[in-house]
Design brief:
The complex is a heterodimer of chains A (342) and B (325). With 342 residues, chain A is of the alpha/beta class. In chain A, helix 2 runs parallel beside helix 10, helix 3 runs parallel beside helix 4 and helix 7 crosses helix 8. Chain B is an all-alpha fold and 325 residues long. Chain B has a single domain, classed as ABC transporter involved in vitamin B12 uptake, BtuC (Orthogonal Bundle), CATH 1.10.3470. In chain B, the strands form two sheets. Chain B has a two-stranded antiparallel ribbon. A two-stranded antiparallel ribbon of chain B has the order 2-3. Classes of the chains: A alpha/beta (342), B mainly alpha (325). Chains A and B meet through strand 7, helix 7 and helix 8 of A and helix 4, helix 12 and helix 14 of B.
Chain lengths: 342, 325
């Protein structure tokens, strides 16, 4: 036999051998997972295999999402076997990564999609294959594609902020709104909630004198606020959509020495924001949009795979929608909420 | 069709007519700036025409401005540097690693990172024969990754570094310090481009590389140097920005390269290389800063700003083409 053929034969034998050996690690090998359409494995014993996909962290919030999920996996210890994919920089990449994750036949799939619409097909695929999907934050476009959703309350952030401003300003004053990325639902809801609250409470007493997006970026927040400070002589409050972005806004206000003229609120719940709220002064409040929701999602995934529900509730199954409240964080309660900071 | 020799001789002359005369492009740009100031005076007189606001415009222009000066040299060699925005973040974070060691060390660290990354670009383009677009595109991604990785995606507060904060936010005789730095860099850039042999060589290399090589110009070191120059400008811009923000953030610098390139192009420097003007770049930077300022004062949506910017770039390039033929 020629050298080439010998090598080819050895390779084939090698591949065959590996494939044959590969089936042996089922770990304890008790309940076999059935692939019934739509229903999770009932009464699974042994660790629940969870696959978690989230976009690449280019922002403190996303990084916290990833970290919190990993921590939840560790806290659950033997109960779960968690795989985390957090390097996708686009919807297409994430869809590919999820396809690969599905090859590993997880019991549950947890996804924070880069874009809800773009990743709905792959979520639907998982659901059709009998793998329940837990959707975090950015929602898929079809309810049939996922078993449960857990996310924050963007409208609630705006609404609570509006109420906070109404209280602090006693329904009179000039307010500046610094938005995130223009046009996305997060931004629109946070603006809508805010406007609804101040209209309801103050009926025009509070005026939004400037509203500009700063893309969740601190340097953009800086330059936008610098220009607005030029345009407006009297600003009583600044409502920003994001704690990281608010750092730039704060810098602009302090550089112009106008920190005594106004106060500022953020959103999200970053450590930096909480530090400043604790100190007191310009940064008065923030509203939680907490990345700890990913940890909760892992917990939910575990329960769903085991066919269990939330023990405190009467219902036997995990609810299909859980909206996490946008808790207001001020000097009064910041000490208690420190652990949730990111 | 001109011979290579004639082309080389033509390209060896500085872009401006000797004595500092200005071409049509720059005249047009001065006109645009005056028009913008007039519009601002009419539309928003109370807020726009104050010395406070105009100094504000100058201060905001200074960061992209410094980047644009470096970019002028790169584009003059028919190259391009897409990575300056991300490099600003990387340089800022590099400085931030030494926040305990004081302002001077911060500055050195940022400078070091700027030169290091600039040299990587330089090596790839000059000696690796990688097209500038590809090399700097790769660096755009890599530098952002470096910034995120080194900082663990968390901004580093530099509140205590008084020196750096002064650099970004202080004043010299009533003029913002970052504006002073921008003006200083502009002057240095102008002298370098128009009054030194180095500047002539840069333009020559961009205009006709073969002719320059034959004429004895050391082409590769020249190309290498402009990317390092860009890296130095990146470091300066990073220090100014960090000073203004009072924090080194890995998220900054997004799309700054496009602003810098746009300013250079509308200023009259040719993307094809061989023709460069620092005065034009300066005016281009001021133009965009004025637009941003005016539109924000007017409370107009950010989309209007983007459309306006695009329209100006198009108009500027069309004038350039008209002039070339």
């Amino acid at each position: 036999m020629s050298m080439k053929r010998l090598v080819l034969l050895l390779c084939a034998l090698f591949v065959f051998g590996v494939a044959a050996c590969g089936d042996d690690d089922d770990g304890g090998g008790e309940a076999v997972l059935t692939e019934e359409k739509g229903s999770p494995a009932q009464g699974t014993e042994g660790p629940v295999k969870i696959a978690f996909s989230t976009p690449a962290a280019d922002h403190g919030w996303l990084k916290a999402v990833s970290d919190n999920a990993k921590q939840a996996g560790e806290d659950l210890g033997e109960e779960v076997d968690l795989t985390v994919n957090d390097s996708a920089a686009s919807s297409a990449e994430q869809a590919d990564q999820i396809e690969t994750l599905l090859q590993g036949k997880p019991d549950v799939l947890v996804v924070l999609p880069f874009e809800g619409d773009a990743l709905t097909p792959v979520a639907q695929k998982a659901t059709d294959a009998g793998i329940p999907v837990v959707n975090v934050d950015r929602e898929f476009s079809t309810p049939g594609a996922y078993r449960a959703w857990i996310g924050g309350d963007n409208y609630g952030i705006g609404y609570q902020a509006g109420n906070y401003f109404a209280d602090e300003l006693k329904c009179k004053g000039n307010v500046v709104e610094i938005q995130g990325i223009a046009g996305i639902s997060v931004t629109e809801l946070r603006t809508e909630g805010f406007n609804d609250a101040i209209e309801q409470r103050c009926k025009g007493g509070i005026k939004v004198v400037a509203r500009q997006p700063a893309d969740f970026l601190p340097d953009k927040g800086l330059t936008v606020m610098e220009n607005i400070l030029q345009a407006e002589d009297q600003i009583d409050g600044v409502y920003t959509h994001d704690d990281d972005m608010a750092e730039g806004v704060v810098a602009a206000i302090e550089n112009a020495n106008r920190q005594d003229e106004m106060f500022l609120t953020g959103a999200g719940g970053s450590n930096a924001a909480m530090d400043q709220i604790e100190e007191g002064g310009l940064y008065r409040a923030t509203f939680l949009y907490n990345p700890v929701m990913s940890a909760s999602a892992i917990q939910l995934a575990n329960l769903i795979a085991r066919g269990e529900g939330l023990t405190e509730l009467a219902e036997p199954e995990v609810p299909s929608r859980i909206q996490v409240p946008a808790t207001t964080v001020t000097k009064e309660n910041v000490a208690d909420l420190r652990d949730l900071g990111y | 069709m001109s011979t290579p020799d004639a082309v080389a001789r033509r390209r060896f002359l500085p872009a401006q007519v000797p004595g500092g005369g200005i071409q049509l492009q720059e005249y047009a740009l001065v006109g645009v700036v005056l028009l913008l100031i007039l519009a601002g005076a009419v539309l928003e007189s109370d807020d726009f025409l104050t010395s406070d606001n105009l100094l504000n415009v100058l201060r905001q222009a200074s960061i992209v401005g410094v980047l644009a000066i470096g970019m002028t040299f790169v584009i003059a060699t028919a190259g391009i540097d897409l990575s300056v925005g991300s490099m600003v973040a990387a340089a800022a974070i590099a400085g931030g690693q030494f926040v305990e060691s004081g302002s001077f060390v911060f500055f050195l660290a940022a400078l070091g990172m700027g030169i290091l990354l600039g040299s990587v670009n330089a090596g790839a383009v000059a000696y690796g024969r990688v097209p500038p677009f590809m090399a700097t595109l790769a660096m755009l991604l890599a530098a952002r990754g470096i910034a995120l990785w080194m900082s663990d995606k968390t901004p580093i507060s530099i509140f205590e570094l008084e020196g750096i904060r002064w650099f970004g936010n202080g004043e010299v005789l009533g003029i913002p310090s970052s504006a002073v730095v921008f003006l200083a860099i502009t002057v240095i850039g102008w002298v370098l481009l128009n009054r030194t042999r180095y500047g002539r060589y840069v333009v020559a290399v961009g205009g006709n590389r073969e002719a320059a090589r034959i004429a004895g110009v050391k082409v590769r070191p020249i190309i290498f140097s402009v990317y390092v120059l860009s890296g130095i400008c990146v470091a300066i811009a990073a220090v100014m920005l960090t000073g203004r923000l009072a924090s080194a953030s890995p998220l900054v610098g997004n799309l700054y390269e496009l602003d810098a390139i746009a300013a250079v192009v509308i200023g009259g420097t040719s993307l094809a290389g061989g023709r460069a003007t620092i005065v034009g770049t300066f005016l281009g930077v001021i133009t965009f800063a004025l637009i941003f300022n005016l539109l924000t004062l007017m409370g107009l949506a950010v989309e209007i700003q983007q459309i306006t910017k695009g329209a100006i770039i198009l108009a500027a390039v069309l004038i350039q083409r008209r002039e070339e033929s």
